[in-house]
Design a protein that fits this description.
Layout: H1 2-11, H2 26-38, E1 44-46, H3 54-61, E2 68-71, H4 77-81, E3 86-89, H5 93-110, H6 120-123, E4 124-126, E5 132-134
Parallel strand pairs: 1-2, 2-3
Antiparallel strand pairs: 4-5
Helix pairs in contact: 2-3
Length: 143
């Protein structure tokens, strides 16, 4: 995604794109936001390390009325509602997980040879709501 964003930014005039890697550390991301704001950025696009940190990021941008666009990780309605210049672009992770689980279950049912170690029955739990949960470790299923 980074390459595509940089490629698109090069086609736009009068745009300087500043990208940072927080190394999956919220404290680093918070510091990077401080540096970006001190440079006078006009907007922030943030892929939060920790969605619980959204109020902190908003608190940094709000005094200067800098728009904040969160993507990939939902900062939550409360955080978004605290600032009219805060936005979220992404999907519902719960819905995505359900869709992914259903696709996996459908494929495994249709193609039993995909279960290379023959543990599909111990690794999948089918709930009454027709949802599937993929476990990391085999579990005992009681029918």
């Amino acid at each position: 995604m980074r390459k595509e964003i940089n490629k698109e930014a090069k086609t736009l005039q009068d745009i300087e794109l500043l990208m940072n890697d927080s190394q999956n550390a919220q404290s680093i991301q918070n510091d990077q936001v401080d540096v970006l704001l001190s440079k006078g950025v006009k907007a922030l696009a943030i892929n939060l390390v920790d969605p619980a940190a959204a109020p902190t990021i908003i608190g940094k941008a709000k005094p200067d009325n800098i728009p904040v666009v969160f993507f990939n990780k939902d900062p939550g309605a409360k955080a978004l509602g605290s600032y009219e210049q805060a936005y979220y672009v992404g999907t519902d992770p719960k819905e995505s997980g359900i869709i992914q689980g259903n696709l996996i279950a459908k494929q495994w049912k249709a193609t039993p040879e995909f279960d290379l170690n023959k543990t599909v029955k111990s690794n999948l739990y089918y709930s009454k709501a027709n949802r599937v949960i993929l476990m990391r470790k085999p579990v005992q299923i009681c029918d």
